Structure formats: C-alpha cells, structure tokens
C-alpha cells in the first residue's frame, strides 16, 4: 500500500528511516569494535521487526539477531530463511521445545532446570543444538552464578554446542562502577574456563560507556536512535510520527476542551483536532502537558487526550486556510520527551506505539 493510500485511510502514520537505522548499526559496530547481535524483540522496539531485520540482513551485513519469545523467532526465521543466527535470550516454556529447536533458534540456558529440560528433548530426538550460556554477574534476573563449573556443564550436557556466552549489565546507563564490576566478573569467568565461544556483555549504554573486551555486542535501543543518559554518540532517530489537523474551531475565553473540562481557555483560541490518542500509544499523561509541532510552532495539547483524538492550540500558527501537517514525534519532539512526560523511558514509549499507526519505510 502506498503512503498516499495509507494516509487516505487515516492521516496518522509513522515514517521509518532505514538509512538512519543503517547509520546506527555502523555506530554500534564502530563503538564496540566488534560485530553485533541486533536486538529486534518487541517488534523491533515498535519499528517493525521483520522490516528492520530484513534490511539489516540484506543491506547492513547483520548476521545475528536477538529476540525474546519463540513466536518472535519463528516469524523471523520464516521471513529470513535458515542462514541468520537467531538468539532467543529469554525464557521458553517446555511445551515450545519443538518449535524452538525445529526453527533452529538458539536458546539461553541459565540454570540446571532449563538445561535438563532442553537436553532431555535433544536426547529424545537424537539431536544437538547451539545454545547461549547466560551468566548472572549482578542483574539477578536469569543466569548461572559466575562460580559455576563450566567443564562439568559441558560434560553433563553433551548435546549442547555452546556457541555464545553472555551476561547482562543492570546499570550501564547510570552506574559505571557497578557495570565495570560486572565486566570484571564476566571476564574472570571467561578466562578461568578458557571460553572459546563468542562472548557478549555490552548492551546499548554499555557500548557507549564501557570498553568492549568481548567478541560481540548486543545493541538494542541505540539502533533506533536513542541512548539513555548519553548525548555524545551520533545516533539518528529512526521513527517519526506525522498526522494532520482534521478539524479547526474557535473557542471563547472561559470555554473548556475535552473530557472532564480539564482545560479552560483564558482567551479566544484556535483549537485543532489531531487524529491520534491513547489507543495509538499517545498517553493520557500527555494531557495538558505535551506539544505537537505545526508549521515550525510547538503547539500545546489542550485538555485530556482522548482514545482516538487529541486537541492542540493553533492560536499562534499561521494557517492560511489549510489543514496543516503535524509532527507528533521526531527530531523536535522526541521519545525521550514523551518518556519524561509519562514518567517512563523511551523503550516503553516506542514499544507502546500501537499497530493502529501504520509504518511507512523509507530507504
């Protein structure tokens, strides 16, 4: 479907800049000094996992991808074929082992219970499989302790091919001392056990803030143009959201706008209606707080954000009798700003943009 056709259905859409995505991939490689596992879980952080992965695979030479669920991995495998390595870095229910291994997904093994379950399946079906061994150096979520006996692990589970050993930083954006402590623990584990497999520790903020001494890195949010707490890395925003004003009206001083009358005009005002609301991922927390950009002017949101529509102040915008385009998310109004208003992080903002907003891809 063409952009014009999509806009005719509803004028609100997300424009995904694939060249910016490619730029960010190269930034991740350059800063880490290694190749990467591109994290595209949660539908590519809201950008569209299949399109992002296909572009990275065919145009950027990315050979490894990280997902969070078996379904994400299955869909990606069907789309990209057998060659890319797809790492499933979370938990897998035992009822999904057939789907996991038949799709050549690489699971994370993080304790003996899950290791035994995977290995029993492989023995039963007379198979071997690549796995990621996950070590807990301080996140305290998933992973073996760093004092585990790696040799005994390989003897106990001979059907496993350990192709990747990883740990995960808990605070690489806020606590470099603790992050370096985790790095030291992981490095010591690798050295003590003479690990020859690929290894990875650094996530996006880790890539920006910590020297990489491992063979891979695992960028996620930075691939999409964001990096919490670090403004020195030259990333490019990948997603922009646009719409247009679909209705304009004048209100008098003392009149109110939207549900529960939470905005009262203190003067005559021009109000514009924009077709985006909380069902699209535009949070109700933006009510009376956020802004949209129209013809170079930042226009405050007026009153409560509705399910499908939001009202903005167009009083200071030269309209010339036209229904203007609206920048809702982009270089001027970023996901970081949305996150600040909603008391969250850009990850949640981007993942929360619903599929009611069509994604249009620009190369």
TrEMBL record:
The modification N6-(pyridoxal phosphate)lysine is found at residue 41. Gene3D superfamilies: Alanine racemase, Lyase, Ornithine Decarboxylase, Chain A, domain 1. One of its GO terms (biological process) is D-alanine biosynthetic process. Pfam families: Ala_racemase_C (PF00842), Ala_racemase_N (PF01168). SUPFAM superfamilies: Alanine racemase C-terminal domain-like (SSF50621), PLP-binding barrel (SSF51419). InterPro entries: Ala_racemase, Ala_racemase/Decarboxylase_C, Ala_racemase_C, Ala_racemase_N, Ala_racemase_pyridoxalP-BS, PLP-binding_barrel. It is an enzyme of class 5 (isomerase). The keyword Isomerase applies. Its EC number is 5.1.1.1. Pathway: Amino-acid biosynthesis; D-alanine biosynthesis; D-alanine from L-alanine: step 1/1. It catalyses: L-alanine = D-alanine. Residues 238-362 form the Alanine racemase C-terminal domain. GO terms for molecular function: alanine racemase activity; pyridoxal phosphate binding. Substrate binds at residues 141, 307. Catalyzes the interconversion of L-alanine and D-alanine. May also act on other amino acids. NCBIfam families: alr. This is Alanine racemase. It comes from Geovibrio thiophilus.
């Amino acid at each position: 479907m063409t952009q014009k056709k999509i806009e005719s259905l509803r004028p609100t859409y997300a424009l995904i800049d694939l060249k910016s995505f490619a730029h960010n991939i190269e930034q991740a490689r350059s800063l880490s000094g290694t190749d990467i596992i591109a994290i595209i879980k949660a539908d590519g952080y809201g950008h569209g996992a299949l399109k992002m992965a296909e572009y990275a695979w065919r145009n950027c030479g990315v050979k490894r991808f990280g997902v969070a669920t078996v379904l994400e991995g299955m869909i990606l495998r069907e789309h990209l074929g057998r060659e890319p390595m797809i790492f499933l870095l979370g938990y897998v229910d035992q009822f999904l082992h057939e789907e996991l291994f038949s799709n050549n997904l690489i699971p994370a093994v993080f304790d003996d219970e899950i290791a035994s379950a995977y290995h029993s399946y492989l023995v039963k079906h007379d198979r071997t499989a690549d796995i990621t061994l996950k070590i807990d150096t301080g996140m305290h979520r998933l992973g073996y302790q760093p004092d585990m006996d790696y040799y005994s692990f390989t003897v106990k589970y001979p059907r496993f091919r350990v192709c990747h050993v990883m740990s995960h930083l808990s605070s690489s954006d806020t606590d470099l001392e603790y992050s370096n402590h985790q790095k030291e623990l992981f490095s010591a584990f690798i050295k003590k056990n003479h690990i020859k497999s690929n290894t990875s520790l650094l996530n996006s903020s880790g890539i920006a803030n910590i020297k990489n001494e491992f063979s891979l890195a695992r960028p996620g949010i930075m691939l999409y143009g964001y990096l919490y707490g670090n403004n020195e890395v030259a990333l490019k925003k990948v997603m922009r959201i646009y719409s247009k004003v679909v209705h304009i009206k004048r209100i008098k001083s003392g009149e109110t706008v939207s549900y529960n009358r939470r905005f009262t005009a203190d003067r005559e005002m021009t109000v514009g209606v924009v077709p985006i609301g909380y069902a699209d991922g535009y949070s109700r927390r933006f009510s009376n707080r956020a802004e949209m950009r129209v013809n170079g002017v930042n226009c405050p949101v007026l009153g409560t954000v509705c399910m499908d529509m939001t009202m903005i102040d167009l009083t200071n915008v030269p309209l010339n009798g036209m229904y203007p385009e609206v920048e809702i998310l982009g270089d001027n109004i970023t996901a970081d700003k949305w996150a600040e208003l909603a008391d969250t992080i850009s990850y949640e903002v981007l993942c929360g943009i619903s599929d009611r907003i069509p994604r249009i891809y620009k190369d």
